[in-house]
Amino acid sequence: MATRKDEKARLRAARLEAERRDAQAARKRLILGYGVAGVLTAAVLVGIGVVIASGGGGSSESTPAAAHIDTATGSINGVVPDAREGAAPPAVQNLDLENAAADAGCVLRLGLPDEGANHLEPGARPPNYRTNPPTSGNHVTTPFQQADGAYGEMPALIDFVHSLEHGRIEVQYAPDLPETDQLALKGVFDESPSGMLLFPDPRMPYEVAATAWTQLLGCKRYEGTRTLDAIRDFRDQFRGRGPEGQVPITP
């Protein structure tokens, strides 16, 4: 028959065992909590990294190298990159812009009126730009100017007009231009992408156009090498010459 002393010993052992189990369970909960916190922290850090890498408001995936998108110059703004490899361009035959434009049947409009440079919020309705494509005017606030690069679709008007203010050259083409001709334009872009944007534009009255701040080259028809000469001459004459063209450009 158990004595009072034996009963006390049994109860004490049972209490200690219960305390041990409680302590073990608490330790497991603490470890699990640290694990969940670590996963959440990692997710936050990854999210921050994605935003930084995309230039604020850009794609959540890394951009293809062939698009030459430089987020140090602006934002992607969710516009799809053009990852196609361009065709190697022929050597320039005509180094005189006016002669090259005339030979290609392009309109050259230089020294157009400055339509202003006030800043608008992202997504704001664009003003009625006086040229098509636009060559100046009110535009999106920093840092949402469209980053240098090749894009598979047209960025917002107010986004790429701001890029012009920073001395950028924008080569635009009709979306129904044959792909071989698009790849020829992409090849010209690829040879010197710094300070350049390339994208389709379904709104303009040209098959191919190039714009700088207050400058416009508009070509009703794509004429092969002659058009490429005019675009390269336009690029070389006006790249980096916007009112805020202080962003470094490496030809």
Written overview of the protein:
- This protein has 251 residues and is an alpha/beta fold.
- It has helices at 4-53, 97-103, 157-165, 179-191, 225-238; strands at residues 106-109, 119-120, 139-140, 149-150, 169-173, 196-200, 208-212, 215-219.
- The strands form two sheets. A six-stranded mixed sheet has the order 1-8-7-5-6-4.
- Helix 4 (179-191) links the parallel strand 5 and strand 6 (196-200).
- Helix 2 packs antiparallel against helix 5.
- The longest helix is centred in the first third of the chain and has 50 residues, at 4-53.
- The chain is globular and about 115 Å long.
- The protein starts with a helix and ends in a 13-residue tail after the last helix.
- Mean pLDDT is 84; it is low at 29-61.
Helix content range of the residues, please? 25-40%
Beginning-to-end CA distance, first to last residue: 100 Å
Q: Low-confidence segments, ≥5 residues, pLDDT <50?
A: 29-61
Please, how many helices?
Answer: 5
Morphology call: globular
Number of strands: 8
Concise synopsis of the structure shown:
This protein is of the alpha/beta class and 251 residues long. It contains five helices and eight strands; from the N terminus they run ααββββαβαβββα.
List keywords for this structure.
single chain; 251 residues; six-stranded mixed beta sheet; 5 helices
Spell out the blueprint of helices and strands.
Elements lengths: L3 H50 L43 H7 L2 E4 L9 E2 L18 E2 L8 E2 L6 H9 L3 E5 L5 H13 L4 E5 L7 E5 L2 E5 L5 H14 L13
